[in-house]
């Protein structure tokens, strides 16, 4: 005997399978959309936080840039003051040098035999002009100068005889090289 089932169970199963697939696809699509919404919300929140942090850091950067400018200005002022202090220190160290040189020069001049008319100093060169009784006094003065703590070398530039008030005198010019002094 042949049995015929008149109930549409396959069609019901197909419809149920189709409904299940639609539900799965729809729920997958909804889950996908929810994931997209969640990711978008997360990115937006993170973006807002990062923008706030950037604004805070830019504020700090502006403050630091201002401070760097102040520090640079302070460094300029400091270097200018250090240069001025160096000049003052040099002047302070050398302020008594000329006096010491003149005192030593006065000691080195042979008494009653030699007269200095002019002393000029340019850099490390010293030029001395004067009048002496004779060449021996000039030579003695040159030897005394070479023994000086301030003078390294002495050269006779010129010497000539000069008659003053019926006296024969020697007019001379000396060129001296000063010793380098550490400052």
What does this structure look like?
This protein has about 180 residues and is an alpha+beta fold. The protein has two domains: about 90 residues; about 80 residues, Threonyl-tRNA Synthetase, Chain A, domain 2 (2-Layer Sandwich), CATH 3.30.980.50. It contains three helices and four strands. A four-stranded antiparallel β-sheet has the order 1-2-4-3, covered by helices on one side. It is rod-shaped and about 175 Å long.
Task: Describe, in short, the structure shown.
The protein has 183 residues and is α+β, with helices and mostly antiparallel strands.
Draw up the topology in text.
Elements lengths: L8 H86 L2 H12 L5 E9 L2 E8 L2 H12 L4 E14 L2 E12 L5
Primary descriptors:
2 domains; 3 helices; alpha+beta; Threonyl-tRNA Synthetase, Chain A, domain 2
What is the CA-based Rg, rounded? 52 Å
Overall 3D shape: rod-shaped
Helix content: 55-70%
How many angstroms does the end-to-end distance come to? 133 Å
User: Assembly type of the shown chains?
Assistant: single chain
């Amino acid at each position: 005997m042949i049995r015929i089932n008149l109930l549409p169970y396959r069609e019901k199963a197909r419809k149920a399978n189709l409904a299940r697939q639609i539900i799965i696809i729809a729920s997958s699509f909804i889950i996908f959309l929810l994931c997209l919404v969640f990711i978008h919300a997360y990115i937006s929140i993170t973006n807002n936080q990062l923008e706030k942090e950037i604004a805070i850091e830019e504020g700090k950067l502006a403050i630091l840039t201002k401070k760097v400018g102040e520090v640079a200005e302070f460094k300029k002022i400091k270097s200018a003051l250090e240069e001025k202090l160096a000049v003052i220190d040099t002047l302070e160290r050398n302020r008594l040098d000329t006096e010491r040189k003149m005192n030593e020069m006065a000691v080195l001049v042979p008494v009653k035999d030699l007269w200095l008319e002019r002393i000029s100093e340019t850099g490390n060169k010293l030029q001395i002009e004067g009048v002496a009784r004779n060449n021996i006094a000039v030579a003695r003065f040159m030897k005394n100068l070479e023994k000086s703590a301030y003078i390294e070398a002495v050269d006779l530039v010129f010497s000539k005889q000069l008659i003053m008030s019926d006296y024969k005198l020697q007019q001379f010019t000396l060129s001296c090289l000063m010793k380098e002094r550490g400052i």
